[in-house]
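Target protein
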Amino acid sequence: MHFGSWVWSLDNTSLVHSLLFVNTHPLVVVALMPIVGETVRRGHLSGVFLGFLGAAIALMDVGDGGQVTMVGDFAAFLGAATVVGYIMIGRELRSRRGMPIFVYAFPVTLGAGLWLSAATVLFEGSSLHSITPEDALLGWADPFWLVWVAYLSIGPGLCGHTGVNTVLRWMPPIVVSIALLLEPVFGAIIGWIWTSDVLIGLPTVIGGLMMISGAILVTLQERGNFDDESVS
């Protein structure tokens, strides 16, 4: 659901809004902390308040004649909410149980591919018998698309998602986490270089900075909790 809802949001809202809302997962984690028996501290609440206030401000760009839509932003947020389970389970398997990275990544990626294949058949009408690659379930194997698919699997997939989990062995988690939260900034720059057509309204700038700051506050508080547990 994370990949599906986030990629769908890219077609239904602006690039910057999609990246902003899909990176609100630290804020979602706070809502789940009481359920898993973890303590919610002042830093968590401050970060959540700042983050969601920023989201409300950023949503002021909805319906302003641009690319931003409420449904697209919600889809990106759904991607953030569903990736929380991935993060929490991954932390358990990788950090605490020491599962090898590729043993962990293979079933996750395979499962995502199977579920998304079923989803495109149910909701988008794709089939094995379609003549046009864009509508075929295995259309990605078309020579025209295969190069792009290879890049996406090796670049953002292997070096991106899997690479993030890998470098945790050599880099502090707090550095990796905060670096990931800067994705909307770098994504906007790359989008502008690639298309020269990235429009960012003032509410998105102000609200986006607040959302990123709120997520960083939560991340810093989480790191503080981890350090306290390590000392004790």
